[in-house]
Amino acid sequence: MPDKQKTTQPSRKGKKAWRRNIDIGDVEEHLEQVRTEERSGGKISERSDDKLFMIDVKGDDRVKRQLAKDKPLYIEKILESRSAIPAVGTRLFSLPKASPKDKGKESRANNAKIDKMVKRKLTHTEPAKPIKKSKGTAYDVWADEEPTAVDINPYLDPVRKRKVHEPTTLKVKPAAAVHLPAVQVADAGASYNPTMEDHQALLRKANKVEEDKIAERERINKQLEFRKELLEMDDDEVAKSDNEEEEDSDVHSDDDEETRKRKEIRKKTRTERNRLRRAKETKWLEDRRRREKALNKELHKLDEIQQMVVDVEQETEEKTKLRQERQEAKEKAGLPRLGKHYVPKVPIEVQLTDELSESLRTLKPEGNAFKDRFNSLQKRNIIEPRVPVAAKRRYKLKEYEKHSYKQFDRANNKKSKTPL
C-alpha cells in the first residue's frame, strides 16, 4: 500500500512565520461576536433577564382562528343530547322471512342470535359524542377590540384616525318640518261643491299663474329673436358706421402720440429740485397741523362719539335680530331652495265651471297622491329637491363625408358644368 501523504507543517522559525501561519480564525470570530453584542446593547452574559426575555400577554392570532374554527354551530348546540335518559328508539320492524331453501341451510340458533342483535341495535341508541371544548380562552365576536399598544416615536407626530366632521344641522330637525303641516288642506274653491266666490277666486289665482308663464316665455323669445332693424339697414349705412369707427380710432391714436410727446422726461435744475423739496415739506407740515387740529376737535367731542358708538351698536343689534327673525320665518315657511335645485311648484288643481260635478259619485279624480307626498317632503326640507339627469354624450360626434358621397357630388358638379 502506498504511504499516506503527510501534511506539511508550516515553518514557525521566526515571528513573521508565527503571525503568518498560525490559524486564529476562531479567536477573530469570537471577538467579532463580542463587538456585535456590544453594539446591540452589551454582552449577553452581562445583561439581566428582563432585557433578554419578555412575557407575551398579547396572544396569538392563530389560536384565535383555531377557537373560531372549533366552535360548534348554534343548531348543533340545540340538537345536542344533554339528558341522562336515552332517547326513545325508532319503531321495530319485522325482518323479511327467509325462503324455504334458506331455512334448511341456517339453523334456528343463528336466526335467534341475529334477531337478538337487531333488537338490541334498535332499542339501545348510542349517545351522541360530546363536543370537545378547546382549552383556549373564550372569544367574543361582537366585543369591541381593545386598542393595541403602539410604540410612538416622540420625534414624530402620531398618526391617528380622525373622525369625519359632522355638520351642526345633522341632528337638528328642519324648522319647516315642525311648523308646516304634513298634509295641507286644499283651497276652498277646489271642493266638489264650492261656493261661487271661492271657485272664482281659485280660478283667478290659476289664471294669474298661467299669464305669468306666458309673459316669461314671450320675454325670452323676444330676446332671442332676430332684430328687424338690422334687415332695414342698407349696406351703405353699415359701411359708413364702420368708417366712423375707424376714424375715431385714428383720432384716439393721434391724441395718444401727442400726450406721449408732452410727457417726455426733462432733467430738472437744482433750483427746481429745491423748490419742490420745500413745497413737499410745507405740505407735510400743513397736513400734520390739520390732523392734530382734527384730533383735538374729536377729543372735545368724546361724549358725542361714545353716544354715537352706542347708537350704532343698538342699530346693529336690531338689524341682526330682525335678520334672524326673517330667517326663522323663512325656515318655518320652508326654504325655496335646499341644495342645488329649487323646490318645484305644484300646479293648482282646479276645475272649470262646466266641469264641476253635482255629487261625489260623478267627481273626476285629479292629481297624484304620491307626487303630493313627495312634494310635501321637499317643502318641509326633509329631503333635498332633485331633477332627473339625462344621459349626456361624453365625446362630440364627428361629421365626415364618405368617399361614395364625394364621388356623387363630383359627378353632379360635372353635369352642371356641361353646356346644354
Structural commentary:
By secondary structure, this protein is an all-alpha fold. Helix content is 52%, strand content 0%. It is extended, with a radius of gyration of 53 Å. 2% of the residues are buried. May play a role in ribosome biogenesis. Its main location: nucleus.
Element-by-element helix/strand order: HHHHHHHHHHHHHHH
Structural class: mainly alpha
Low-confidence stretches: none
Counting DSSP H or I runs of 4 or more residues, the number of helices is 15
Number of strands: 0
Compute the average pLDDT. 79
What portion of residues is helical? 40-55%
As a whole number of angstroms, the C-alpha radius of gyration is: 53 Å
| Termini separation | 128 Å
Described by strand count, sense and barrel closure, the largest sheet is:
none
Percent strand equals under 5%
Shape: extended
Short description:
Keywords: Nucleus, Ribosome biogenesis. The protein has 420 residues and is mainly α.
SSE order and pairing:
Elements: H1 15-21, H2 25-39, H3 49-52, H4 61-70, H5 74-79, H6 100-105, H7 108-123, H8 175-179, H9 196-224, H10 228-232, H11 235-262, H12 270-300, H13 302-333, H14 369-379, H15 403-417
Entry keywords:
420 residues; mainly alpha; extended
